[in-house]
Write a structure and sequence with these properties.
The chain has 293 residues and is mainly alpha-helical. It is built from 13 helices and six strands. Helix content is 38%, strand content 7%.
Length: 293
């Protein structure tokens, strides 16, 4: 009988457990061997390390929602970055196979490599373009690596984003930011470079990405996503991320997902007025404005 779950993922960010595989004791050894065909040496890594890792709850941002809610500048900035398809990714995810993907993940010659059920996945430039419409171009930036952004100064930029520019800066927190910058900060920390918790505190890498987006400086997002995926494999306290994207890559490479555990992204995965207050906003119908409380 099929093992598919048709439940929608509807977990609270901070207090619920993200979708995850069941204990390996509930999986037949034959099924696990099939997952790791041609990579049998990685089975122990999967059982001891990767299967214990949590999966980052996927978030979906509808561009039509941004425009409808009056975030026209942010709409245009994200569109300039060619992030439409990535941010709107939704649909099925395969939690067990996501963990297999990360267990087998490797990086050679600027290409992500993995394998599931003996099917080699070479995530090259063509795959990125076909699945999410991204090209490997733009500045390559991350925390501690500003690349061509000689003019970037995190204190100066953060100060410009504050509602009160004269406020003393003790922490890089989204709480004191203007509305557009606050929403952008949460998009960065929840979707573009997600982490398990503390989405409200911005690190240097977050601020660099925000700066580039707001100034229409094209970022090499393949570089950013690839780097973050490799961290998710390497660091034990890092949640497994981009699970919708990884599942789309599985479909792209023709991985057999029949009879595998399947989850669906649900309404609570989508940015909406109902859950926006969890992203430190509250909407009041007053003169058509978003008021920050």
């Amino acid at each position: 009988m099929p093992r598919r779950s048709q439940r929608a993922i509807q977990y609270d960010d901070e207090h619920s457990t993200p979708p995850t595989t069941r204990s390996p004791n509930h999986e037949s050894h034959g099924r696990i061997e099939a997952w790791f065909k041609d990579h049998e040496d990685n089975i122990q890594v999967f059982l001891i390390e990767m299967n214990r890792k949590q999966i980052s709850i996927p978030k979906v941002l509808r561009f039509s929602w941004l425009r409808a809610e009056g975030f026209e500048s942010l709409f245009q900035q994200l569109k300039h970055q060619k992030l439409n398809t990535f941010l709107e990714l939704s649909g099925k995810i395969y939690p067990d196979l996501v963990k297999v993907f990360f267990t087998n993940l490797d990086f050679k010659n600027d290409v992500l490599l993995s394998s599931i059920k003996g099917v080699r996945m070479e995530i090259n430039k063509r795959a990125w373009k076909d699945v999410v419409g991204l090209k490997s171009r733009g500045v390559q930036v991350r925390k501690g690596e500003t690349g061509a952004l000689a003019e970037f100064n995190k204190m100066h930029y953060y100060g410009q984003c504050l509602r009160n520019p004269a406020a003393e800066i003790k922490h890089f927190h989204v709480g004191g930011l203007k509305v557009d910058q606050r929403l952008l900060g949460m998009i960065v920390t929840k979707i573009l470079v997600p982490r398990g918790s503390n989405h409200s505190t911005l690190n240097e890498g977050d601020l660099i990405l925000m700066y580039c987006i707001q100034h229409n400086i094209q970022v090499d997002w393949i570089y950013v996503f690839r780097d973050h995926m490799l961290k998710a494999k390497r660091l034990m306290d890092f949640r497994l991320l981009y699970v919708i994207l990884v599942s789309k890559f599985m479909e792209y490479f023709g991985i057999d997902v029949e009879d595998e555990l399947e989850e669906l992204t649900g309404l609570l995965n989508h940015t909406s007025n109902q859950n926006l207050h969890k992203w430190v906003f509250l909407r009041w119908e007053m003169h058509g404005q978003l008021l920050v409380l």
